[in-house]
Amino acid sequence: MAFNRRVFVLGGHITPFIGKKHPDFIWKRHPDFGKRENPTLEETISAAVNGALDATGTPAELVDKAWIGNFVGELFSNQGHLGAAVVGSNPGLMYKPVMRVEGACASGGLALACAVDAIQAGNDITLVVGAEIQTTASARTGGDYLARASHYARQRELDDFTFPALFAWRNKHILAETDTTEEDIGRVSVKAYANANKNDKAHMKAVSLDLATAREAGPNNPNFLANEELAPFMKMSDCSQVSDGGAGLILVSEEGLRKLGKAPADATELVSLAQVTGNLYDDGNPLRMDATANALCKAYAGAGITSKDLQVAEVHDCFAVTELLMYEAMGLAEPGKGFQLVREGRTELTGDIPVNTGGGLIGFGHPVGATGVKQVLEVHRQMRGECGAYQLAKKPTLGATVNMGGNDKTVVATILRTT
Ligand code: CAA
User: Of 117, 248, 316, 365, which residue is 20 to 30 A from 358 by alpha carbon distance?
Assistant: First the structure.
């Protein structure tokens, strides 16, 4: 979409993403078990809302509209109606128009898309929030909840872990029909963990992963699906994490910047956003992410750029194979050749097109509703030199994000650049 009003990311806040294997995550053998509890959905939303307002010096009273992306609060936390939870997080938001949007793992991206539309329609200061709590249930029960992002009636029976099974199907085809190897898929996860080890907010900040472990199944990296046909094609290290966390950002027009006493130089510019939706009932081609490709094509056109112009990207690596397919859908690699980028180290922090610099969904974590908001903040933070130990040596000036719901079904792609 070509914008008729400029849109700026002023900044925001990402809570720590936590879950199993994170040092602060409370579980029965944690020394603090019984003394304190993990943050609730309500606390996480409040941290994202107030963190974003504080980080940008935005008085809540000046926010015109807000959205929250959340997938399944009703299932993990028995709580829906999250627009009112955003308002409940800060008295200055009372009686503002706030709503929750849902598009599976692209819920955060959809919240952002709503804010962009609102700015095009004349609003000046918007708040975009994403949050999800997923550790209130076991990974197996969570697999059932997350399966609501597939076509549940048809696909739930694939495996208790429906989404890992859906992407095992892609793994199976990519390994059989292209030159991609298990080692290439392992390299994606090794890169994700290495980046996360430099990121204090990352779920996997304290867990290391080497290529010998990541490239094949073994006692420390089991194939865990029950579906016999698909089980050999999904290892634990291929998967994004079951994480809790939230993110919030302030998106404004030029007039919004003025109202807040800021200038374009205080922000990054969101120059283009494309949102596309595929067909829930059609599985498509396992070797292609056509909805993602369609979204990127539109996002590049809106920004007047090509994939060659990108200097950084945040992509939806819900599984390692997804990142390889995203390289191809984004035009960073030819079809079937995504593996070359990771094999040559081009998407590492020192490469020419670093991808998922803070660890992505595999390393940073994947609190589903928060992911699309976090991705935009990550590119913004790289551009502003705020990434600490994983800051790129040369601050990027143009970057992309891709947030995906379901198996390449709801996609939100953005292009950001420095002002
Ligand atoms: N050998 C064999 N099997 C083993 C094993 C071993 N050593 N260890 C564990 N398993 C099996 C067991 O069957 C176990 O289940 P039970 O405990 O119920 O028997 C199962 O693996 C899971 O084990 P854990 O609960 O110990 O695993 P975990 O909590 O560490 O979770 C994970 C690991 C299952 C991979 C989990 O991280 C996961 O589910 N990740 C994927 C999350 C996901 O799918 N997110 C959505 C992505 S899709 C997307 O983004 C788009 C969208 O719209 C949804």
Answer: 117
